[in-house]
Queue: 2 jobs
Job 1
Amino acid sequence: MSGAPLTDFPRPSLAVDTATFTVTGRGLEIVLVKEDVGFALPGTFVHERERLHAAVLRSLRSKAGITGREPQQLKVFDDPDRDPRGWVVTVAHLDVVPGSVVAEGLRGGSITLAPVGEVEAEGGVRLPYDHPRVFVEALRRVREAYAEYPDPWGLLPSSFSLGDLQSLHESVAGEDLPRDTFRRAMKRQLETTGELTDGRRGRPSRLYRIPAGARSRHS
């Protein structure tokens, strides 16, 4: 390794961007903030000697009003031409949050929610820089997790019916899922609570929960 001082080498600026999803009555949506370049993923440049995790939490708090979360690292995006302002490497992060987490930001007008179909669609919401690539990678990761595990980010209450679980997973997938196939795949990862729903929405249904420790392995 060269003994030359670090100042002899060109260095990129370092940033973080976070793709934060939530599920509403319109389906799966992504959190966007208004920047000079239009709607974008919440992000910021990393301060001197600041850890990536701290920069992520700072950007979510200051730009989106989101606190109390632990986004996971998604991927490094290092195309030298990804940002027209200069050489910027970003470490993208990912989270899926309950609606209550974004409520304050929505009330204050600091964020907006966009259905993922509007971001994916031609002529839909246009994101700056290489945020479309970050969005696509994050969406793929979320949908893969929900295809394999029951509610990996814990959006449902601690106990739920299989109908509620399937409805959530269909919102994330953006399509209907085969009932029998879905239930076979998910039931073996669940345990019953021994209780039933109150029957206000049709016949009482058995309630399930995710075994202790299982959810934390996937979210």
Note: The first strand starts at residue 13 and ends at 24.
Job 2
Amino acid sequence: MAKVELKKPIVEEISANIKDAQSVVLVDYRGLTVDEDTRLRKELRENNITYKVYKNTFMNFAFKGTDFEALAPYLEGPSAIAISTEDATAPARILAKFAKTAQALEIKAGVVEGTVYDAQGIEQIAKVPSREELLSKLLGSLQSPITNLARVLNQIAEKGGAGECAPAEKADEAPAEEAPAAEEAKVEEAPAAEEAKSEDSVAEEATASSEASATAEDSAEEAPAE
């Protein structure tokens, strides 16, 4: 009876830890040095992962009636458990990476989002990017079309601005073009005016000549009468 009472708090602790867990990974930690074990615990803790060493019998009791009951066949030899309630792939990713440099660490199996995986399956899960990485990629893919659209709109705006400036430049050039035309008109008017004056002079001379001829004829007719 006393042994059962001693086991109960530990089983309840395990049950509480796995209650809202998204993933649980079992490992065999035999052979790890004190330094390696310290570094592993620190890295897991920094990623909000609970890492504990429990007796297999305690974990077996706690797993019963849960999604983690499928881990019972792997509860052999010394076992440690890594539990995550936030990032489902974090325990597999960190443990698999750590095992590459600390070969004494052996992954046994795990349950990720209700599905049980053996050691090879956990290694595949470890290759899945973290939630932050996935969100970053998603955000990047969403921002890319927006960035391209903004670039296109900016180019259109720049072209529109250039188009608006062009008529203004032409308007400024118009008076300059009209000035030579006005000068040419004046030059053309000058000979025309001189020609008009010449024609008036000829007309006046012709009139004077006609009047002189008429006077001479009148004088000639009056002479015999005397």
Note: The CA atoms of residues 62 and 190 lie 118 Å apart.
